[in-house]
Amino acid sequence: ITDPAQVDRRVPTVSFTIEGIAPATLAKQLAAENIFVWSGHNYAWEIVHQLGIPADQGVVRIGAAHYNSEAEIGETLEAVHRLVAMLRQKRPA
Fold first, then answer.
1. Terminal Cα-to-Cα distance of the chain (whole angstroms)
2. Distance (Å, rounded) from C-alpha 85 to C-alpha 73?
3. Fewest Cβ atoms nearer than 10 Å: which of 34, 51, 61, 79?
4. Is 46 in a helix, a strand, or coil?
5. Which residues pair with 59 in a beta bridge?
6. How many helices (H) and strands (E) does the chain have?
7. Long-range CB pairs of 12-16, under 8 A, 24+ apart, other chains included
8. Contact in structure between 76 and 62 (CB atoms under 8 Å)
9. Which segments of 1-93 are extended strands (E)?
10. How far apart are CA 10 and CA 66, in angstroms?
11. How many CB atoms are closer than 10 A to CB 48?
C-alpha cells in the first residue's frame, strides 16, 4: 500500500535474530504455543547477506495483521522473551 490516504491499512512486519539461538528453533517453540511466525531469509536473501546473517539461518519474522489485538501482540512479545530465556538456559556452557 503506497497511497498515503490508505497508509492506515498497512501492518508491520518485524524481523530479528537472537544471538546463539537459531531462528528456526525459536519459530518452532512459538508454534508449539500457537504463535505462528516465519524463519529463514524470507525471500530477502540479499538483505540477509548484506547484514552478515547466514542465509541458511535467516531471521525470525513476525507479521502482525489488522485483526491482531494489542493483547495478542503483548502475548507474543512475552512468549519470545520467555522462550529466549529458556533456550539460553538449555545451551551447553
1. 47
2. 19
3. 34
4. helix
5. 40
6. 3, 3
7. 12/63, 12/64, 13/61, 13/62, 13/63, 13/64, 14/61, 14/62, 14/63, 14/64, 15/42, 15/59, 15/60, 15/61, 15/62, 16/59, 16/60
8. yes
9. 13-16, 38-40, 59-63
10. 8
11. 21
Strand order of the β-sheet with 38-40 is 13-16, 59-63, 38-40
Which residues face 61 on adjacent strands? 15, 38
Q: Determine phi and psi for 14, rounding to 5 degrees.
A: -120, 130
The pTM of the whole model exceeds 0.85: no
Cell of 24: 528456526
Contact 21, 83 (CB under 8 A): no
Cβ neighbour number for residue 49 with a 10 Å cutoff:
12
Report the alpha-carbon distance of residue 43 to residue 75 in Å, rounded.
Answer: 27
Tens digits of per-residue pLDDT, 15-60?
999 999 999 999 999 999 999 999 998 888 898 999 999 888 999 9
Please, are residues 34 and 79 in contact by the beta-carbon 8 Å criterion? no
Q: Which residue has the cell 512459538?
A: 30
DSSP bridge partners of 63: 13
